[in-house]
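# nightly structure sweep
# worker-07 picked up a monomer target from the shared queue
# config: single-sequence mode, recycle default, output format = structure tokens
# input follows
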Amino acid sequence: MRLALLAFRLMCLAWLWPVTQLNSSHHYPNKRRHKEVYVGESKPKHGGRVDLRMKKLDSTKSLLIKSEQLLRIEDHDFAMRPGFGGSAIPVGIDVQVESIDSISEVNMDFTMTLYLRHYWQDDRLAFPSSSNKSRTFDARLVKKIWVPDVFFVHSKRSFIHDTTMENIMLRVFPDGNILYSVRITVTALCSMDFSSFPLDTQNCSLELESYAYNENDLMLYWKNGNDSLRTDEIVLSQFFVEDFQPSFGLAFYSSTGWYNRLYINFILRRHIFFFMLQTYFPTMLMVMLSWVSFWIDRRAVPARVSLGITTVLTMSTIITGVSASMPQVSYVKAVDIYLWASFLFVFLSVIEYAAVNYFTTVEEMKKLKAANIPNSYNPTEAMAFDGCFHDNEIDLTPFSEVSSTPNTERNTQTRNSTVSAPTEGTRLRRKQSLRWNLSFIMSNSYMIDSYSRVLFPLAYLLFNIIYWSLYS
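# output follows
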């Protein structure tokens, strides 16, 4: 009986054994899955053999994990700088300027795109290598290690290019030396002096500095001296880049101390030809156009007045357009001197005709009174009617010759003796000469136009010679 019971138990165990093995495989699936990920295999979904291509992809992921383990990222605290507590860590800087995108006079800033490269050594990232080859990573590993916190002083806006991925490169060498490169576009302040605008030369600079680490913790320096700053061929529309030069210095903050600061200095010289076409040549033409009125008949009132007003309004438009494109500075610019001096010449040409017209009217009134023309006749109305006044329309009888009588001869001698009698004759002769010249000009107003045809061009030519010799 016992033998039969033992045989029955053995049969039951033999029958339940496969079921037990199947249940054990369902109770511990994570262990096998973890093993597959670590080895780099993938379990087929519907059975069958493992795909070798999928196995190769997973092996690559396994190599990435091994690289991070090789650099021992999890074994160190990268929130602290290398050599924390010791001397300052030297960080070399190398810059390649790709382009100067824009320069704004109104905002007093410039926009530059550059490659910023950092060089330092971190022994925590050293790894053994038989071939002594470096390893290159992208932005994903940069977030896990320590990098210098370099920022741009006086920058308004800046960003790292991220198309199609963030333009960041990290290269780690076996001895712990690191190259960290990033492509940045930055808009920074440039304090411009427009005293000689548009014949000016601007000196701008881009300044680099560590934000958190002062000179006791981090020392910034140019990696290769003056050769640390390289530029591509830069072509600007309004400026010519004369020089790119790196320099360095120290900056002091009362709360945190001294910091190393690097400078990227560049000198910009403005192209004058654009402003010659847009400002100077039109201004010169307007001034010369205002001189045309000197050759128009002085009695042609509508022609000369309309020409003078047109040139004055055109000059006002040019001055307004130039002022709108410039910052509102509190000092006088070179272009302002030229525009307002030209405006003065145009304005004086209008005033010149006002004087000519006035003296002409006075002269005509004297002639009318001498000819005994009735008071009801108004020469001003006649001039305004058709734009000109014609002397031949009025019968002006010539003055009758005065006969030479003894009384007149006596009066003439008395007048001559009165003039030559005072001892201080020089002063009286000057007064008489000035008065005589003024009355002569008033009686011959056409001579004002004759003098203006010569004096205005000569004065404007002299002004241009002085202006361009001072500012060019």
